[in-house]
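Fig. S4 source data, part A: sequence.
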Amino acid sequence: MKVLVIGRPEAVLGFSLAGVHGQAVTTPDEVNQALDNALAAKDIGIILVIQDVAKLVQARMDDLKLHSTIPLVVEIPSPEGVSPDEPSLGDVVLRAIGIKL
């Protein structure tokens, strides 16, 4: 099973350097299309959605986070950082795919 990241171009580029494929998006329509494609793919096991683009389709993300099993949809922090009570991007990526950034 593969991991796919959906986010802004700079975040997707960062993940590609770690060997994780991604889909760059900037609009709600692009986020929805990328999610549709990823959910339909048979070889994707985990979909990581960067927080800043997840906010563009928050209602759908909330539903997917609660109900998705395969592929598992996970919202991860944006590269800009997180609030002190949330885990860092590096911590989330390490837990999700086992790669330390």
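Fig. S4 source data, part B ends here. The beta strands are 2-7, 21-24, 44-50, 72-76.
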